[in-house]
Design brief:
The chain has no helices and seven strands. By secondary structure, the protein is mainly beta. It has a single domain, classed as PRC-barrel domain (SH3 type barrels). Strands 5-6-1-2-3-4-7 form a seven-stranded mixed beta sheet, with no helix packed on it.
């Protein structure tokens, strides 16, 4: 399922789960890379306080967005996502 880039702007606070249903974290904000006004990835925050980790979730890895429950399902496992500070 393809996700429109404009959809990524409104997903702050959604829970992200990998293809096995394991939680990855919550969407912190959209990330802009190829174009300044069109997001192409999400910054996802996981962990608590000192162990907080952020991961990049590219739009192509998003399989499903459930607005009613606030969950985003991915097509990849969480270990394949790149992390950043």
């Amino acid at each position: 399922m393809a996700v429109a880039a404009s959809d990524l702007r409104w997903l702050t606070g959604f829970l992200v789960a990998d293809r096995e249903g394991k939680p990855v974290g919550r969407v912190e904000c959209p990330m802009y890379g190829t174009a300044p006004d069109v997001p192409d990835a999400l910054a996802v925050r996981s962990g608590l306080f000192a162990r907080r980790r952020r991961r990049v979730v590219p739009a192509e890895t998003i399989d499903e967005i459930d607005d009613s429950t606030g969950v985003i399902g991915l097509t990849v496992e969480r270990d394949t996502l790149k992390s950043f500070l």
